[in-house]
Design goal:
The protein is α+β, with helices and mostly antiparallel strands and 125 residues long. Helix content is 22%, strand content 11%. The chain has two domains: 60 residues, no CATH class; 54 residues, no CATH class. It is built from two helices and two strands, in the order βαβα. A two-stranded parallel ribbon has the order 1-2. The longest helix has 19 residues. Its cofactor is NAD(+).
Length: 125
């Protein structure tokens, strides 16, 4: 970054840095650092490191984006991942199955390292 004189950074943080807040809705002024899991701590420490960098050099500008729902869904399909009636990748299939909107996750293909070439392993029901 120094070689290319990069002094502006957008950091992908997370709402997990708020921990379990006592008051909702959250604002940017809400207390941070009461993380409840390792992922939250890594995001919080990342923010602290970048804050130290920006404080030590006024040419630096850092913005933290604290995502609240990068992956996940509500069973209604109104919030989060909902790929419609025919998902094309694995995550929407898993969430739809978990919420009972699909009966099962189907694995396609015929070149698997199994006796008959299907994704089903011998001895599975």
């Amino acid at each position: 970054m120094a070689v290319n004189n990069v002094k502006k950074l957008v950091y992908s943080s997370s709402c997990t840095i708020y921990g379990n807040p006592a008051k909702l809705p959250l604002t940017e002024q809400a207390e941070t650092g009461n993380c409840t899991n390792p992922y939250g701590w890594t995001k919080y420490i990342g923010e602290l490191m970048l804050q130290d960098l920006a404080n030590s050099d006024p040419e630096w500008s850092v913005i933290n984006l604290r995502y609240f729902n990068p992956v996940g869904a509500h069973k209604s399909g109104l919030i989060g991942e909902d790929a419609g009636s025919c998902p094309k990748n694995i995550f929407p299939c898993l969430t739809k199955t978990a919420y009972g909107r699909m009966p099962e996750v189907l694995v396609f293909g015929n070149d698997y390292n199994t006796p008959d070439g299907t994704g089903k392993r011998h001895g599975q029901s």
